[in-house]
Amino acid sequence: MNAVDPLSLARAALARGDARAALVLITRALAADPRQAALWAELGRVYLAIGRPDQTGPALDRALTLEPDRAAWWHLAGMALHAEGRHADAAELLGTALRQPDAEPGQRVALAAALLDAGDAARALPEAARAVGECPQDAQAAFVLGTVLAALGRHAESANAFAAATAIDPSFAQAHHNRALALDEAGRAEEAIAACDAALAAEPGLVHAQSQRVFLQRRIADWRDLERRSAALRDAVRAGRPGVAPFAFLAEPATPAEQLACARLHATAIAAARPLPSPPLANSAGIRVGMVSSGFNNHPTALLVAELVERLRATPLVAIGYATTADDGGALRRRLRAGFAGFHEVNAADPAALAAQVRADRIDVLFDLRGYGAGEVSAAFALRPAPVQVNWLAYPATSGAPFIDYLLADRHVVPDALRAHYSEAVVRLPHAFQPSDTSRPVGDPPARAALGLPQTGFVFACFNNAYKIGPPVFDAWRRILAATPGSVLWLLGDPAGAFARNLRVAAAGAGIDPARLVFQPKLSHPAYLALYRHVDLFLDTWPYGAHTTASDALWAGAPLLTLPGETFASRVGLSLLRTLDLPELVCADEADYVARALHIAATPGEPARLRARLRDARVASPLFDLPRLARDFARAVAFMHQRARSGLPPADHDLSAA
Q1: How confident is the model at residue 19 (pLDDT cuts 50, 70, 90)?
Q2: 293 pairs with which residues across the strands?
Q3: What pLDDT shows up at residue 274?
């Protein structure tokens, strides 16, 4: 080649970041001589560099027609398909590249990544392991191996692979962050915090790591510098910087407007997937309803919806379940499989495959029962598999997503004054939006002493997740304990774990005997439900309150004291108590919360009176009337469906009490 060779000039232009000049040079050269295979391949490379993978394929097809045994070009064609989201097709071409005589070991890592993105982690694993063996100093190969292991649930091994990546390249911030995620899944939260710190040292502005670190801190009650770090997350959201996990953000003292902004940032990245046209509504008898969830196992979501799903058989709805997690072999999974009119195991499906299954089932109204929590499948909803798509139950906030049409709520969790902070059309049920399972028996618990409780003394309890318990909540509890000698606070957690250890330190620092905090390890659901017979008063948390746990407490007969705020996540206790007509357990502010707790504890017979009120309300109120809720749910779905059938956009709607 001479100094004016167009291929060399184009490569030089691309190397200095001038893709437009490279494109002009190659186009001119091909116009003069369209049989230069290398020029066609370079044209494909330029198109991929400028974000036009759809044009890369045709250019590479021309190159490979002329010279079909070039591994680098097969590899480039596969990378283009990968960039388009055609992961299975990409894996086929990347595999072809590796079978060429001039294949390079470093190309194997792309095959592993494509197989993983195609939802085939089992096939991706040996390729990723082989890529690491072939290129032991390739940090990207180790990173992909860690990602594959994480997808297979082998979190400790995944953490080791990410550690290998960071040992090769200490500046690999995403590998540090992914190691933190793997360590968290492996139950090693304190090590995960250290991995987040390493990620932030490598890239101080990595918002994902900032968000994960704060959530980890909350989960083990490590409140050091928490206020500053929490404020930084809110600043990032207000500045429009993506990366704050919307679910974790619900535990921050954020405004509803900030939660909406956070959700929109997250949804924007998901919505970049090219949506399919909305399918037509089915013409079959009965509205076809789909429910997608990662919680169709021994999980709070399953506990809430199991009876409702069964009751829907008495309505015109045809309900189909989509389980995005593997069968745990438990009773709830079997019950849901029997309760739905159809049930699909889609844990191995990628978003496109899940969307295809929903379309094949001709679903009219599709409910997302996961939202932005762990195991989210929002990418499938972004593909628009159903004409009407609804956020309900599992993610207590707005989705901020253009591909979610409705939020199913009630007047308490989304009052008129806060309506502006929800991106969806809001359909409000006439009573509480949250179902429950009234078939659950509440048995007798072990004696107090066997549970670590004192023989006498008032028992305050909070069985909420640890991340819901922050410094303001604990300060209120400290004041309550200080004013009620002999009382204890019963919490859910490993007595030997970091959460218990940190809370005991906080109690001691506040002048409370740490022995007055009693930590209860997790039990089977029936055994856990029986514990509430020993609870005199359940103390709710804020800004993220009790949801399934609140329903559990009230069903088992334990009074619940709640402090609602402005966010959906803080108002579920309010919804349940208002539906039960127990307004005296809804507090106005923190001072009122402390005062009401002290009044209940100090007034002889008050806990028994509240239990009796609750016992009567359970029968008389609509909260645990599942046949009624099933009818209301069906009416809400019919409203959404009818608007779609009429060609009308989603709209707010309040259902009247039937």
Answers
A1: low
A2: 323
A3: 63
Do residues 490 and 520 touch, judged by C-beta distance below 8 A? yes
With vertex at residue 265, the alpha carbon angle to CA 261 and CA 266, rounded to the nearest 5 degrees, is 120
pLDDT at 459: 98
SS3 409: strand
Partners of 461 in the β-ladder: 490, 538
Q: At 586, is the pLDDT very low, low, confident or very high (cuts 50, 70, 90)? A: very high
Whole-number Å distance between alpha carbons of 638 and 188: 46
pLDDT the model gives residue 573? 98
Residues 6+ apart with CB under 8 A from 306: 332, 335, 336, 339, 437
Phi, psi of 375 (to 5 degrees): 80, 20
313: its two tokens = 């058989």
In the block, tokens 């001589």 appear at 33
Q: What burial class does residue 4 get, using C-beta atoms within 10 Å of its C-beta: 0-12 exposed, 13-18 middle, 19+ buried? A: exposed
The CA-based angle 555-560-566, given to 5 degrees, is 115
What does DSSP assign to residue 279?
A: P
Confidence class for position 1, pLDDT limits 50, 70, 90: very low
Taking each continuous run of H as one helix and of E as one strand, the counts in the chain are: 28, 13
Instruction: Answer whether 437's CB lies under 8 Å from 306's CB.
Output: yes
Residue 366's H or E segment, with its range, is: strand 365-368
Q: What DSSP string describes 175-200?
A: HHHHHHHHHHHTT-HHHHHHHHHHHH
Q: Rounded distance, CA 416 to CA 402, Å?
A: 22
648: left (phi over 0), alpha (psi -120 to 50) or beta: beta
3-state secondary structure of 345: strand
Determine the straight-line distance between the first and last CA of the chain, rounded to whole angstroms: 83
Helical ranges in 384-425 per DSSP H? none
Whether the upstream peptide bond of residue 402 has omega within 30° of 0, thus cis, is no
Check residue 640 and give its pLDDT.
97
Torsion sign, CA atoms 172, 178, 182, 184: positive
Contact 190, 220 (CB under 8 A): yes
Output the CA angle 153-470-571, nearest 5 degrees: 90
Asked whether the beta carbons of 196 and 222 are under 8 A apart, the reply is no
Sign of the torsion angle spanned by Cα atoms 260, 261, 263, 267: positive
pLDDT in tens, 136-188: 999 999 999 999 999 999 999 999 999 999 999 999 999 999 999 999 999 99
Nearest residue to 477 (alpha-carbon basis) of 577, 593, 603, 608: 593
Residue type, 10: A
Reported pTM: 0.90
**Cβ neighbours of residue 293 under 8 Å, at least 6 residues apart?**
301, 302, 305, 321, 322, 323, 324, 369, 370, 394
Q: How far apart, in Å, are the Cα atoms of 179 and each of 200, 216, 530, 538?
A: 13, 13, 38, 37
The CA distances from residue 78 to 48, 57, 60, 132, 201, in Å, are 11, 9, 10, 20, 34
Which of residues 267 and 85 earns the better pLDDT score? 267
Question: Could you tell me the two tokens for 426?
Answer: 């809001």
Residue type, 106: G
